[in-house]
Every structure is written in C-alpha cells, then in structure tokens.
C-alpha cells in the first residue's frame, strides 16, 4: 500500500489507535509502514527506557502485511486490525516465553497458550510487537529485576516508572505501540500510568477474563494502558469478550465502551477525597489533584469534599498480598528461590507466617470495606483521589531515598484499597510537578460501571488534554 501521510509533521508512532484505524480505513496509512515506524522508535528508545523483554519484528511484520491486505480489500478482521500492541510479561503469549521477570523460569519450554486477553487481541487483528517488562512475578510497585534490569521513566530516566506494568507504561508514553496490556493487583496499572503521564484503567474484577489465575488471587485485574481514553475504551471492547477458562469472569454484557464516551459529567454527584482520611500526600501532587477536581465542577458535576469511611487498609491488603506471595513461592525449589529478588523472598516469608485465622479475619474486613464502598456509591457516582501520593522517585529502588518505610505499599495508599473492593478505577494525567514529573488523578466508580469511569476520564481529558514526552529526558 502506498502511504500518504496527511501531515508531514505528524509522528505516526504517536498516533492513537483510533487515529490509526481512521487512516487505515481511508488508506492514508498502512499497517506495514506504521509497524516499521514503531520498530524504528523501539530501536531508538528501548536502550534508554528498557520497556521490552521480548521484541519480535519478524512475526509482527508478517501480521502487519496480512492486515494491510485486509484493509486494501476493505475487510478488516476486527476492532484493532493492524494496531501495534504489547503484552506484559506476566501474561501468556503463544510462542513467546512468559518469564514473569524471573530467572527461576526456564525459557526453554513450549509456550503453546495465549491468555484470554492475548487471544482476543490476536483475533481482532492486533499486531503484537513483543512483551513488556515487570518486576519478578509482578510482586512490587516498581519495575526492575535481575533478569531484564531496570525500566526507566521517559520524563526523566533517573526516575522509576513505578510498577508492576512499568514497561507497558514506558512503551505507551514513548510511542512504542498504541495499545498495551497491564495487570493490576495493588495499583500496577494506575501507578505506572501516574508516574509516566499515560492513561491506565483497572476494570471491575472479572470484567476482563484472566487465565491462568494470578497467584495474588482476587486482587488481580487485567486492563489497558494507552495514550488516550478513547483507546482504552476501544481496548475494553476487545478485552471484555468472554473466555470460559476464567471461572471468575463476569458474563459478557455486549457493552460498547466507546458509545457515550463524550456524554460528559454534568449533573453527576462526585466525591473528592484528597487523602482518604489518613494518607500523607506530596504538596505538589495534592495541588494538581485538587485543581483536577475543580475541573469536574467547571464541567457541571456536583463535587463534594468527602472521605469514604474505609480507614487505612494497608494491613488488610498485606494479609492478602503476602499470603499470595507465599503460595506462589511454595512451588519452587530452594535453588530456584536463590535466583529470586530478596524482597520477594522476604514478603513470601512474612506471608507464610500469617495464620489461617488471621487471613480469614482480613478477608472479613475486606468484605466490610467492599460493603462500605457499595453504600458510598449509593450517594456518589464517582470518587476522585490522587492516583499516587508522591511523584516518581529514583529508578532501581522500591522506595525513595530516605523514605521511612521499606515496602512499596507505603507510598501508594490510594490504589490497593480498590483492588480489595474490586471496583473499576483509572489514573488520568493531571499535570506536572515543578521538576517536570507527571501526576495522576484517580477516578473510582461503583462496581461494574467501567463505562462511567471512562466517560469521566474522557471529559477530563477533553478539558485538560494529556501531554506525552516530546523526547526522552536522559538523566543519570
């Protein structure tokens, strides 16, 4: 296909999936030329940010050529035919190793299966570029491991992307693909979205089928990381298709998440909680999120400052997360464990000491929090909070230099509560600190109301357009 780019100043790697599909339909861009451009971008930017652990241009180009042929005939195969896409390295992808960031996994084995989200993307024509980095088994809120190294923030490469979907977020921010699969068991989509200034949506638990089940159980969600809300909505149309392998999955509702996306927020009753009643927030982040909440008032929503009565849920989350880590490592030999992240071993050891009674008490407390939030959303359509309490800190660390606590959960008090409650929640870029680092606004909806969360995020994006890095800011 001969490519005619409408605007010679346009970098086609920064076009959204929705824009790419419009160009394919008009035959002004080709999936082949777009895929080539994305791999040129990967070749240029991957050394600086380390977003990928698997890159497969040969397979991607075969897929892109097939897509080009379909578009030439006016017969695209699916909703994202020809769109460059990545898969996080904790999600199974046929014929590519899924090492989960761990030296304890043998890459020399057969990889015959696609996870549900991979299968749905493949069926809908996506061009799979490769797999993005994760901390080992996605256990922590930053992205580094001894297998693939440190993933770095394109806004400042001395800073972390957060995690555990840090590779996906870095790839999204830099144009190394338009659509990106992330996972979120305690904030692992929303934290990297906030730190890198992209959009990330954690769907209602079960809305996106998952298989095999996460070792972290019913905390774990799968969802999109993208540069626009419309692309996340498009991606949800693909990811929310059913798969019988996930017995937790919600029956498909046939919802088109792109319909009604621009209906705005006028008349909605929205709660804004600056600190959930207990959290300490960096002053610059607090100011940016407060200004973002004001935008919703300007758009016609009724915004009230109010805290949901859920208290500090960190200990409840710790019981669930650490027990999951203990169960995960129980299947590995001592030799394999010797290859693992010492922090993961510490967390698993603590989890192994949690009694069944203590775990069940935490499960009951979790249920109570879920009930509290159900009651809360009888009054409020949405809840706004900071996505993360601090801006991006030094890469290669679990916590900032001089931080008083050891574990990652101490700096992200706003994310994991809504894994406990299984609610849909997103992080939308809402500005920059004085150091030029992005901040994220978290939008939380009632269970099963992903469409309203996306609609609110789209209204905010329209009022305050998201900004991606013009180039990577390489710092040492």
CATH topology: Amidase signature (AS) enzymes
Radius of gyration: 21 Å
Class, according to the CATH hierarchy? Alpha Beta
Give the number of domains: 1
Structural class by helix and strand composition: alpha/beta
Indicate the overall shape.
globular
Strand order of the largest sheet: 1-3-2-8-10-9-14-15-13-11-12
Give me the count of strands. 15
- Biggest sheet character: 11 strands, mixed
Give the % helix.
25-40%
Number of helices: 14
Low-confidence spans: 1-9
Average pLDDT, rounded to a whole number, is 97
In terms of DSSP E residues, the strand content is: 5-15%
Could you say what the CATH architecture is? Alpha-Beta Complex
Question: For the terminal residues, how far apart are their CA atoms?
Answer: 43 Å
Could you state the CATH homologous superfamily? Amidase signature (AS) domain
- Helix and strand run: HHEHEHEEEEEHEHEEHEHEHHHHEHEEH
Summarize the SSE layout with pairings:
Layout: H1 17-26, H2 31-49, E1 52-55, H3 57-72, E2 84-88, H4 116-123, E3 127-132, E4 144-145, E5 149-150, E6 152-153, E7 156-160, H5 166-174, E8 179-184, H6 190-196, E9 199-202, E10 221-226, H7 229-239, E11 269-272, H8 283-298, E12 302-305, H9 314-329, H10 334-337, H11 342-352, H12 356-379, E13 382-386, H13 417-420, E14 425-432, E15 438-445, H14 450-463
Parallel strand pairs: 2-3, 2-8, 11-12, 11-13
Antiparallel strand pairs: 1-3, 4-5, 6-7, 8-10, 9-10, 9-14, 13-15, 14-15
Helix pairs in contact: 2-3, 2-5, 7-14, 9-11, 9-12
